[in-house]
Amino acid sequence: MGEGGGVWDPFGTLRRVLWIGGGQWAGKTTVARLLAVRYGLAAYHYDYHDARGHDDRRVARRVRLGQSPEAPDPDAAWVNTTPREMAAETLAGFPVRFEWALDDLRALVSGRPIVSEGWGLRPELVAPIVESPRQMVVMVPTEAFRERQLRELPRTTGVGHGVSDPDRAQRNRLGRDRLVADDAVRSARRLGVRVIEVDGTRDAEAVADIVADHFRPYLPPLEEPGR
């Protein structure tokens, strides 16, 4: 698969991963954290590692492709483009970035499953390495819930990359996110992966209950209170 080459898995970790993919602002990180605490699982946050731990690989790849090792100009990336162009570029890059995530996961050893979440964990990338579609869910926000997240989550307030037109950059970013989420839903339904639409009528604990029920065959039993 991609630049990583196959699914070499020295510790058998990938066979035990439970995957939460989908759209931005759907609560994937919160649900993964709740499941990790409930069941004593390890949690892998794709977005965190992709943004902070994979820059060396990103730079090396640009050099191999004959590109500048520097990050693209912020205005070129966020302002002087369209959501459709941004979504196409994001989707094209996900397979390579998924290989980097797999390398992270292969290095982990856990006595229990690992719950891995992030928007780059695409159904078409995960499906070839899992035994059953029940090892994955795709969470996507409704438009109303996305707007609520944008109002309430501090990290959604802007692009924050020193762009010349922050409002346009934010509109482009949101348009891209909608297109990428819609593509994840189409891919999931084509592959028989469950889609959970998050509309804000259930709190995070209730959504985690739904995800836990879906993952039930792979989760350890909950310990009884007081034991």
TrEMBL record:
Give the top-rank taxon of the lineage listed in the UniProt record for this protein. Answer: Bacteria
Q: Which InterPro entries match?
A: P-loop_NTPase
According to UniProt, the name of this protein is: Uncharacterized protein
* Source organism per UniProt: Actinomadura montaniterrae
